[in-house]
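USER: My hope is that you can spare some time for a protein that puzzles me. I am handing you a single protein, as its sequence and its fold in token form. Walk me, if you will, through where the backbone shape changes along the chain. The protein I mean follows directly.
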Amino acid sequence: MKFSKIYTLKEIASIINTTYIGDDSFPVSGMNEIHVVEPGDVVFVDHPKYYDKALQSAATIILINKKVTCPEGKALLISDDPFRDFNKLTDHFNSFISSDKMIADSANIGSGTRIQPNVFVGNNVSIGSDCLIHPNVVLYDNTVIGDNVVIHAGAILGADAFYYKNRPEGFDKLKSGGRVIVKNNVEIGAGATIDKGVTGDTTIGEGSKLDNQVHIGHDTVLGKKVLIAAQTTVAGCVVIEDEVTLWGQVGITSGITIGKKAVISAQSGVSKSLEGGKNYFGSPAGEIRTKYKELAALRQVQEVLEKLKRE
């Protein structure tokens, strides 16, 4: 999430009431998660396991819960609870605004676009030209829809990320300030759900087609011409490259990459990144020929065991 202007380190520290290491005027231009940070961004870290990753990332402002040596060219915000203070920044720069209309006055809707009854279009939503939005679709604030997009009944775009910190008193939610972006010529099936990014964008690439009841998690990026069949679930921060096919009920864990033109068969569980240009099957998913050989070998073992019992 980029801010509307450049703030100083001192100004950001005053918002969350923290001390800092760095020049008062050190520039801060936005905030983001570790996998998409850029220079000028604030990133938070609250566990020693991830200190080095955050400090060595592209982010130039690190919100951290320990005084450490500040890397050259960067600044630190020292907080007793970085998770809490990251939420404070999200609230400050992108606070929730209630809507009292089905289609917000601030929404921008292109020519030739048809919107069916009971569609909710939130604040600052942008919908391109020649789109068709079927009944009971929900487009949360700041969602961006390209041209010639079809969204079927009951789809929900822009709900919060499923992202929590487990505290002794219960689960603490990381607030979502990102967006959903849908590129041109996309079709989204009935009852599909696409969560907004925590601070960045969840993106559906041009020409992609999503079946009914597909779920796409926060900050996931789909490339061009991705085909996803019904009841597939993709977790957060996944990269699915161009022309990937995911058949029904595939499950994909967070933070991995599916390479270009990979095909994953129905009911497969994907737990690690997969190379492009190959067919995959099983749980955990593996190259389809290897998996079939493994299944054949298991059947042979079972036959041998049964033969031994008879003898």
Notes: Residues 288-310 form the longest helix (23 residues). The helical segments are 9-16, 51-55, 82-93, 288-310. The chain has a mean pLDDT of 95. The chain has four helices and 34 strands.
